[in-house]
Amino acid sequence: MSKLEDAKSKLKEVGEKQADFNNKLKKKEPKVLKEFKEFINRGSVMDLAVGIIIGGAFTAIVTSLVNDVVMPVVSMLIGGFDFSALKVTIPAYIPGVEPATINYGNFIQAVVNFLIIGFVIFLMVRSLNKMRERAERLAKKNEDKKEEEAKETEDEQTALLKEIRDLLKKNKK
Hints:
By secondary structure, the protein is mostly helical.
């Protein structure tokens, strides 16, 4: 029976060690999860995610604007050819290798995309700044009006109190 008891005690020890290990592991896991939840729930992370999604959609809109509206007009103004077709071909000197091309038309189109996106963002920021300035001016105007009304009320109360004081002085005499 002693071997059986020894085996049971060793099994119990192993079980306790496993339980201790699991408890230590559990104690560490929630801290990491808690920190991750805090990180994800921060407003800036959510704002960034929303910005990336909207930016992707906005890029599609601007690309369509450039490709379907702006570039045809620019192409028409410069003689009707397509920028994306502009390229320089570098001949291959090794037989069986295709010649390389430098597609500078795509680069021009990318620059135009960038300029249009930059201009649209500039207009948006400019509009937001103007709205913010108007709101600040309106708030300041309202604050000044409230201060003026409070001063007028105070002046009226002071005048009334002076009048009461003067009447009380007259009645004492």
